[in-house]
Amino acid sequence: MRIAKVALTGTALIFFALFIFDRMQGVLRSLPLLYLGLQMLLLAGPRLLYRWLKDHRLALHDAQRVLIVGAGRADAAASCIVSRSAGQQTRFRTGHKITEFPSLRY
Questions:
Q1: CB-hemisphere CA count at 13 Å for 36?
Q2: Which residue among 5, 24, 54, 67 is buried most deeply as judged by most CB within 10 Å?
């Protein structure tokens, strides 16, 4: 969200300065939208790609699937398993979670 705010603010300031300087003569009307889209892609794209590679590709090939039974808070139990295996060779991936609370089942 911060990247979108910064990109929008930067685009607005640049094109406002172009408007003040020479009334944007010679600048296409679609250029601000193209500039904003390209700026968002170049700022957020590498972050999203790195996060996706880190979460899905690098660490989960040799992961052992784990069943969490009786986890009151299923997300807390899953994060505990992942954090415990962070320093070891074996990594765990949460396969399914079984809990007694219907709101936490998915």
A1: 17
A2: 24
* pLDDT tens digits, 43-87: 999 999 988 887 766 555 566 776 766 656 556 666 666 666 565
Q: Are residues 8 and 48 in the same domain?
A: yes
Dist. CA 33–CA 68, nearest whole Å: 47
72 and 26 within one domain: no
Determine contact, residues 29/15, Cβ cutoff 8 Å. no
Question: Distance (Å, rounded) from C-alpha 67 to C-alpha 102?
Answer: 17
Q: What's the domain count of the chain?
A: 2
Map 8-56 to HEC letters. Answer: HHHHHHHHHHHHHHHCCCCCCCCHHHHHHHHHHHHHHHHHHHHHHHHHH
